[in-house]
Design goal:
binds magnesium ion; 2 domains; ATP-binding; binds adenosine-5'-triphosphate; 10 helices; P-loop_NTPase; alpha/beta; Rossmann fold
Length: 263
Amino acid sequence: MLEIEGLTKTFMRGGLLRKSAPVTALRDVSLTVAKGESFGLVGESGSGKSTLARCILRLDQPTSGRILFEGQDMARLSPAAMRRLRARIQVVWQDPYASLNPRMSVHDIVTEPLVVHRAAIGLDSRGRTERAARILAQVGLGPQHLHRYPHEFSGGQRQRIGIARALVTEPALLLLDEPTSALDVSVQAQVLNLLVDLQARLGLTYFFISHDLSVIRYICDRVALLHRGELVEQGPTDTIFDAPRHEVTRTLLAAMPEVVVPD
Ligand SMILES: Nc1ncnc2c1ncn2[C@@H]1O[C@H](COP(=O)(O)OP(=O)(O)OP(=O)(O)O)[C@@H](O)[C@H]1O
Ligand SMILES: [Mg+2]
């Protein structure tokens, strides 16, 4: 479904007058995510995880390398083909406080991607509202919430709204960049269970970013480890956890807290 080949991303830093060394956030990263699986990406802060997500979403342009989605090189698509494809890749960001516009109602937040992608999805205003209500129900929120605003919700509920917004275009691939790490531990478990449930129900493919190995172990079939922009290890989750080959993986495992995920 998603193939990343030799991806490198270098940021040029510094202003007009002062030059500073460029930062290579990703160096020659290659990985493949299969349809229907949960692929985990782990790594310490600054290792390049979000940069990889932003490259997949075309919010950052790769310096070199290719990203193929369903066999198509994303850099070579026409703008119209790109817009159609972008409706099929959605994202849930870490912070449900920062990522929901406080001035928009839940209705407007959740239907916004349908407006952006209306050429590809083709729902009228009433159809969009119906779709939003249906998706909200799937994340455990009733239609009475449609006309409320983000500040009226708890952190966990806000992240459910963020998930609803990501699912409303019926994407094939969902990028989840630390979707639960801003939440209380008890709420984290509920949201993780919801994500597991939604994946099974909707046949989604997950690209799940976390620095929390217990979360990755709970969610992911396969996992890759980024270290300073390079992929140092990847394989089935059980293999990586039982027999880590790279020193960085061992260090991360040693620092892993007690697993707090419920059944
Ligand atoms: N727009 C940018 N301009 C310059 N440097 C950047 C930019 N975005 C990211 N970087 C740098 O790229 C590196 C990787 O950052 P990135 O945000 O991808 O890490 P991360 O693994 O997501 O970290 P975290 O776990 O803290 O979210 C860092 O050194 C960061 O400072
Ligand atoms: Mg990040």
